[in-house]
Amino acid sequence: MHERERQRIILSVVQARSVATVQELSRLTEASEATTRRDIAALALQKKLKRVRGGAEALKAAAFGEISSLPFETARTINESEKRAIAREAARLCEDGDAIILNGGTTTFQMVHHFAGARLQVLTNSFSIANHLIDHSECTVMLPAGAIYRDQALILSPFENDGIAHFRARRMFMGAQGISSYGIAETDPLIIQSEQRLMRQADELVLLVDSSKFHKPSSMIIAPLERADVLITDEGITDKDAAMVEAAGVKLVAVALSQQGSERDVA
Question: How many CB atoms lie within 10 A of CB 194?
C-alpha cells in the first residue's frame, strides 16, 4: 500500500474513533508497526493528529451525532479483493423472487454488482447499496426510517418503529467488524441496535467477513456466533478460527483468490 493511502486510512480511523493503537493501524494498513509509527509521526508533524504513547489521537473529539465507525469510502478499499470474492459467493445464494436483507457493510455492498438482472426484494440500511440497486437493477428496494450518516453511508435510528418490523426475509447478509468466540462484534451501539432489529426479520443469517476480522476484537457484541447459519470468508482464515466457527455449529465457506485475482470456491 502506498504511503499516501496508508496515511489516509490512519487519519480516517483516528478521526472516527478518537484514538487508535499502532497495532490496530498496522493491521488496517497491512504495514509493519515501524512503518505505522513513521506514518503517525509524519501526520503529527502536519498537525493532522496527535502522537501519543502506543498510537495516535484525534486533535478534536468527534462531533455530536457522529458514530465510531470507519468512513465507507475508506473501509471499502481495505481487503477489497477478498470482499469481492466473498460477495460473489454470497450472491449465489440468492434466487429471483427472494426477499433479502443487506446490512450497510462494504462486503455486502460488493454483492450488488451481481444483481443487475435479478428481481429481488431488498431491505437495507445502506443508502449506497440502495442507490446502486435503484440505478443498476430491477430489485424492489426498501429502506428503514432514520437519520443518514453520510460518512458511513448508513441510515440509523435509535427507535424501534423504524419500519424494519414490517419486512420478512429469507436471508440476511451481514458484515461485521469482528468475529470471536464471544460473538459477532460491531463498533457503535447505534449500529448494533439497527443490526439486531434487522436480524430478527430474517429466517437465516449469513455472515460475510474477510479473514482479518477474526483478529479485531471488540467489546460490543451484536449476537453470539451461534446465531449465524453460514459464514463466508476467504482462504486466509486460520485452522484455529475455522475450528471455532464450526464448533459454533455455523457452516463455514472459504473462497480462494487465484494469482490472477479471480475467485473460486474451496469449501
Answer: 25
Measuring CA to CA, which residue among 19, 75, 96 is closest to residue 50?
A: 19
For residues 228 and 234, is the Cβ–Cβ distance under 8 A? no
Give the separation between CA 6 and CA 26, rounded to whole angstroms: 9
Which residues are within 8 A (CB) of 139 and not within 5 positions of it... i.e. 6 or more apart?
115, 118, 119, 120, 121, 122, 133
Beta strands in 130-257 (DSSP E): 140-142, 147-149, 154-156, 169-174, 178-180, 183-185, 202-208, 221-223, 230-234, 251-257
Instruction: Decide: helix, strand or coil at residue 66.
Output: coil
Whole-prediction pTM: 0.75
In order along the chain (267 residues), what is the average pLDDT of each group of 10 residues?
82 75 84 94 94 90 58 81 96 96 95 94 96 96 92 86 95 94 86 93 97 78 95 96 96 80 41
CA pair distance 177, 91, nearest whole angstrom:
20
Name the residue type at position 57: E
Task: Please check whether residue 103 is in contact with residue 172, taking contact to mean a CB–CB distance below 8 angstroms.
Answer: yes
90-111 burial, b if ≥16 CB within 10 A, otherwise e? bbebbeeebbbbbbbbbbbbbb
* Cell numbers 455486502: residue: 108
* Cα four-point dihedral sign 152, 157, 162, 165: positive
Q: Which residues of 240-263 are buried (b: 16+ CB within 10 A; e: fewer)?
A: ebbebbeebebebbbbebeeeeeb
CB 115 within 8 A of CB 96: no
Sign of CA dihedral 39, 44, 47, 50: positive
